Serine incorporator
Amino acid sequence: MARIPLCAGINHFHKTPDREWFETDAVLRVSLGNFVFFTILAIIMAGIKDQKDPRDKIHHGGWMAKIFCWVVIVFLMFFVPNGVVSFYESISKFGSGLFLLVQVVLLLDFVHGWNENWVAKDEQFWYMALLVVSVVCYIGAFSFSGLLFHWFTPSGHDCGLNMFFIVFTLILVFVFAIVALHPKINGSLLPASVIALYCTYLCYSGLSSEPRDYECNGLHNHSKAVSTGSLSLGLLTTILSVVYSAVRAGSSATVLSAPDSPRAGADKPLLPFSKADEEAEKKDVPRPVTYSYSFFHLIFSLASMYSAMLLTGWSTSVGESGKLVDVGWPSVWVRIATQWATAGLYIWSLVAPLLFPDREF
């Protein structure tokens, strides 16, 4: 990979870059191809309201043609000048941040839906299940926090920044429970406990991304294993977020729903259609789509950016830490910022109905 002839006729180097530069460049070019492909599909699918629209067949079919177009677009990206790739690298940081925000919103939507589903059963067994899961999550959060103190605040070193991150995470854990259980807040312990555990994981993810030569990173002796584990978990959460976003795109419970979606307001948009829908189909009335096709592909576009940043360590970790993936101070602050955004959005989801009782959230 140290020599990529496709770039030779376009880019001229005063000094041939090292192998790591070409590896990062290749990842960015493939990511750019994915971004272009899904963005084009998102534009094509904009405004589809019913399944009589000819574009509906493009969304659900034509797989061989779409795969061929994807391969061609990715191939063409290796002929793009370095300036374009550098610009894409810059905007990918913002696109990745937006994707992380989408992950947070979807997580909040999931835990609130989970809680409502079990509470709606109105049976003692499910109430006990809520309590058990909540207690387990809180035990996990506090136990994990203890390990963070052990791993990232070694004795004999000034680790004030790591101490701040961990203590602030514990404060958030308590704040979530206090706010959720406040008499004036219509909250529940289950979402608070799940968000607390997730924020603790984000703290660990951020601290484990610190450079391996940083004296407060106690995982430096297991750097390769930690890097591989962080990469695998990051890619897994990316895939799950993309799939879940597609499933929830037409649900009224999420703020990511298309505002003009014909199915907006449906509690279970992906369940079988109602009898009214079946009768409409018999009368050859156009059947509305169950989610926004354009939003579906837009999520994949943002995921392409995020995957590129994850694989390249936000385009800086290669230079800082050799071949380690997702390691470096940019990765640390991205995780910490995501934690703060998660905490802010969760607290807002609880407080907003109290502040604006006339509005539906």
